[in-house]
Amino acid sequence: MKRIQSDLLFQNANRVIPTGIYGHMAPGAGLPLDFPHFCSSGKGARFTDVDGNEWIDFMCGFGAVLHGYRHETIEQAVQKQRESGSVFNQPHFLMVELAEKLVDLVDFADWAVFAKNGSDLTTWAIRVAREKTGKEYVIKAKGAYHGVDAWCDPGMGGRISSDREFILEFQWNNISQLESLLENYSNKVAALILTPYHHASFGPSELPSDDFWEQVEKLCKKYEVALVLDDVRCGWRLDDSGSHNYFGFSPDLAIYSKAMGNGYAISACVGRDEFRSSAADVFLTGSCWNDAYAFSAALASLQMSKENLVAKSVLEKGKYFCSKLEGIAQEFGIKLKMTGVPSMPYPWIEGDENLYQIQGLCKFAAAEGLYFHPHHNWFISNALSYEDLDQALFIAKKGFGKFIEQQ
Amino acid sequence: MNDLITSKTLPLWAAARSIYGCAVECLTVKNSQSLIPRILPSGEFSFGTSLIFSPDSFVKVIEDGFALPQVRYLLSAPMSTFRSVINLARVGNAYRSASQMKEIYGILNGSLEAICSYLNHHLVAKKTFDEETLNTLTFEIKGMKRKWLIKMDDSNGWQVVACSPLQHASACLTFKDIEVAKNAALGALDSWLSLTNAEIILSGRIPLLDKFGYVSRIAQKEVPRPGR
Fold first, then answer.
1. What ipTM was reported for this prediction?
2. Å between B151 CA and nearest CA of chain A
3. Residues of B with CB below 8 A from A37's CB?
4. Which of A211-225, A242-256, B187-201 has the lowest mean pLDDT?
5. Which of A22, A29, B11, B61 is geometrically suited to a Cys-Cys bond with B222, CB 3.0 to 4.6 A?
């Protein structure tokens, strides 16, 4: 892979941006010598980096793109909106249309609000739960990511001891631990915030045990705790009407973002009627949050998801790809298991707790133009055709072979 | 001892451990032992058995290369005090020169010792690793057999320990060459850039190295070092 512009740009970036690139896209979080630092364009399931290398994509902008880069239908909707404008003194009327769409799509939802990022609304949602219940504590699963705010961010700097004073954690799937927390903090817990399944970075994803969600719902009812679903990453990849349907439960509040706008920044929180007046009392705003371009993109994206059964499609494509990839790995004696749900699989190699093997494997895949991330769950784009998947599998086989040779 | 290491004394304690860490690599065993540091209940810093500095004098030793030790010990054990003074000066020279291999090894070892002190005693640094269960990190220089291992165990806390060339840790940081290792140990390396130009290669459980990097930046800001 050619790599000149990427490095030059990073040098410039490092001069004017702290760490050059920050957050989950920081070079150190992935493969700093193998992944490009900057991209220039994308179409469908492929993107091009600043050195002109084309990659087959398995990260979809870390989940922000579901239908493929620059999908025609979505781009047309945004283009049409561009003729009228984006941000005004009052919200654009599309805001109402989008809220109606979500209330219609998501079975338990009676209202919706909008922001730009998942974090904006995970934090707001727990405040709504506090307002509604009059309680302080929030329970989350250990290692789960819910955003960049101080109560939950995975970083280290800028914290004070009170940031997490009212945050409690339990091990995913450990219902008795959750129940103990609820019992010990009886009448003090406002919210339980969970992702549909456990998709932490740097470790295999964990699906909910058979009765997990049933037990969670029972406990929330018993202890009068708001059940907040962080569907930011999974939303529209498991079910076209919210991931709670995939696992068969019903939350009180749910937050969506990422795939919802197919690359246009938007997030939404939906909720039950019981939370409406509390939601009205927790202040919410942002300068560019009433962005009509993002509203139009989200409307088009949700429509496409529903009409084309996109969640089902990416689950099927993911299943096909994951089983074949596991098979190829097996041919080389690599015990690769694609964990989590097939539309957003996390690659885990048995006995590789320290991640050396998966890093090696992804390096060789990167050399062949496959963007396989070693530390984060992948995302299957609906723009990937079965031919694309077969091509990726063919290339992966080549890369895996080189990896084994080098060992 | 732990009660004596407070947020106020920690930077100097880390500097003292760093001096000893450097001595272990640069000096003979006997000479390095003359620089084993302690904090005394009086708040003074001792090296070996008889070289003792007040905190202010110790800062001067580090920054200016010389300060008067406590005279009472100088008079009661002049030979061992003198040996410690000479060895302290040798370590200071190693930092200033940093040209021979053993001096660079010394600075690197000293820097790891200082960071371990922070991992053991700094409130924020300690918390950073609270939830980690895999706690071993190796540091190596490409093409060289020498490796440094730092690890945590319940009885000793974080420490720099001997490491065989074949030993694998939970995470590994590899320096491109000895010069890069030296610059890193002296805090003169741009860590973000060095990750992308292969001066530093990270592998294994990256979050451990991320956390280690954060603690090392805290230590680098606070710990006095010769020639700064």
1. 0.92
2. 15
3. 196
4. B187-201
5. B11
